[in-house]
Known about the structure:
InterPro entries: 6-hairpin_glycosidase_sf, 6hp_glycosidase-like_sf. This protein is of the alpha+beta class.
Amino acid sequence: MSWLxxxxxxxxxxxxxxxxxxxxxxxxxxxxxxxxxxxxxxxxIELLRAGVVFHARGLINSRVIQHNLDWVWPYWVERQFxxxxxxxxxxxxxxxxxxxxxxxxxxxxxxxxxxxxxVDPRGLLTPFYDGWSLDGWLLADDGRCLLPSRAxxxxxxxxxxxxxxxxxxTEEDGLRLITRSRVEVADGQPVCKMTLEADSKVSGSLVVxxxxxxxxxxxxxxxxxLRADRDGWFVDDKHTVRFSQAVASHHVSDYHQxxxxxxxxxxxxxxxxxCDVGMVTAAALFPVRAGEPCSLTVSVPLTDSDAAIIGxxxxxxxxxxxxxxxxxxxxxQALYQAAINSLILHSPADVYPGxxxxxxxxxxxxAFIVHxxxxxxxxxxxxxxxxRFETRQMRDGYFRSQEGEWxxxxxxxxxxxxxxxxxxxxxxxxxxxxxxxxxRWIGNKRLRENLEQPHAGLLPAGxxxxxxxxxxxxxxxxxxxxxxxxxxxxxxxxxxxxxxxxFAETARAFSSAVDRSLATCEKRLGRxxxxxxxxxxxxxxxxxxxAFGYPTQQAEPNDPRLLDCVEFLLDRxxxxxxxxxxxxxxxxxxxxxxxxxxxxxxxxxRRHEQLMDAVADLASxxxxxxxxxxxxxxxxxxxxxxxxxxxxxWVLMIRHCFVREEGDRLVLCSGLPRRWLExxxxxxxxxxxxxFGPVTVTVEPRQGExxxxxxxxxxxxxxxxxxxxxxxx
Length: 729
């Protein structure tokens, strides 16, 4: 109703706050806004909503965990709440208790299945999004109990090849437990399976425990019931858990009685339990004989029976399409395969940058992930994701995933053009109107060029990438806007030449405006390096300005503005060999480190090898990277614990080491690590899609002689000029 617009809300809020002794929230917000450039959007409501949910969980954690430290909690809690652990975080005035030190998990699943179970660093399995978990323990008859989240020895890895399987091995005092977690296909449906193998020198029990928690903290369970045939659970009357054999003994507990772990030896059997506050714990026990291995499989169906049927060979069919890497570095080989698995898992229709914290859509992440899909040969997945982009385009042409992020349109148009270039296909007819509207939105969104200010002709101040800082006139947005206009011009050439010329001219004017703005920065800072915005000093946010060189390639490889920016970042913003983002993320960042490496690679600077090695060292034992990594613990400290943008950048880095486009030339082998050429094993990559056609590159190292490089291309037209640039040869 229109009269609500005139209702004195601000006065009422101020009055109520003062009456109850609170700070005036209106005045406080006004002060906060003063630290950012004026913008039509303060912060995307989607991120605010996600933050509220995140900290609501943290508030529950603060009410539950610290008062019940005798419970068996997930690995991050056991470490972060231990005063003798380097991951310890004092709680004091922290209103919410969240995972800040070991945000690590690995997704398992099947192609095109939206459910993505996650496995934490000690094998805790969370089958459903943001749900409860299953844990395996080994209880000896003498009272000792092997609890993986507390065990001193643990080894975890992802099995190579085939269906992604996470193996976790823990051992302590003669007790050994191995769990394998994966998603299999049974009767055409996805089923999450955890196989437990126990080995003990004394008799005891293998324990499967239902846990009301996951890698983010508390996740409620209100009711559990043992099935009549004692071979599984009904959880909250919604999900079924099945055991491969009948339970020998069974125990249940609620919040007020404490964790079921406390009562494994002192309780009579219960077959069901209920807890009004949602903290039911249950334990199913299976006998283990001394010196005899014991095995058990736990199965959790992930979808209803009427869900789409999955083929039994879905994984192998997808992996057969991928550009293959053969290299003498087992670590790089494993990381490449794990990254490919991540791309396949997280592209069921839309693409997600993570299975949990980031299981939602951003155009920014999607552009990089789809690019990796294309460069890896997963063209159908990339096209399917791109076909969904136009459904998120607003009437005015804005590609909206989060309001106020002005980079989205440029990224969408750029990745659409990359799709056409890498596949050799013309612009799909049903994309044309979206391209026209998207390009015009960029032109219309630009500020006036006759402003007497450094942001004249740029895009408005916005939130942009959240790791760059408060609202500002970010060059990241501008470089993507120019890239989008240039892409739209290429895409429409021949079918709408008028629009093509319009976008090319707008891109030139936009680029000139950015050049003028950067010139004011060079004068102000006394060096050519590009800050995050016209009003910033050089700081960690300058990482966004590298988009000028990677991936848009608007700058020549040796552009002094680009290279000086890289030198600043290397000198001032690197910790332990990796880029440290001290704004928002406050951790080591794998994918942004690789952005620096890509710029160095284009410039022929061999320091890209050091950065690749640093990123490889930051990977988890299962071959994943969290979005930001704690410099002390090596665990995740921000974002999703399985970050798919990072996986995408690893695939793109490997691809560009072997093959990359520079204008009308194809550059081969310029990024291969020197050490790969110091052995006699052949090195191979492909078939890799390129703008000239797919190509397979083979390198044969030869002792005492330059390595022999051969390539086989299925060119779209005339073969391109090929430039072979082996290191030091």
